[in-house]
Amino acid sequence: MCKVIAIASQKGGTAKSTTCRNLATVLKNMGYKVLVVDCDNRATRS
Ligand SMILES: Nc1ncnc2c1ncn2[C@@H]1O[C@H](COP(=O)(O)OP(=O)(O)OP(=O)(O)O)[C@@H](O)[C@H]1O
Ligand SMILES: [Mg+2]
Q1: How many angstroms separate the CA atoms of 24 and 34, rounded?
Q2: pLDDT digits (tens, 9 = 90+) for 3-37
Q3: Which of 3, 20, 27, 29 is the most buried (most CB within 10 A)?
Q4: Which one of 18, 22, 25, 41 would you pick to mutate in the ligand 1 pocket, going by the greatest count of ligand atoms within 8 A of its CB?
Q5: Spatial distance between the Cα atoms of 30 and 39, rounded to a whole number of angstroms
Q6: Where do the structural domains in the chain lie, given as residue ranges?
């Protein structure tokens, strides 16, 4: 079953992408298949 986890805040630079990447890594290491989509229109890299 698919689950969607949203990490959202209107404020920029508050570790949304970092949290997403770390969470995705942990879930992947736990054996889950993970798809990460960064919907930030700036989509800055971290
Ligand atoms: N726990 C932390 N300690 C120190 N720096 C951090 C931490 N988490 C994130 N950062 C740094 O803070 C900056 C912003 O993080 P990030 O890009 O994840 O934020 P964001 O909310 O996705 O930003 P944006 O709104 O621009 O997409 C990055 O330079 C990142 O490396
Ligand atoms: Mg971001």
Answers
A1: 6
A2: 999 999 988 899 999 999 999 999 999 999 999 99
A3: 20
A4: 18
A5: 24
A6: 13-46
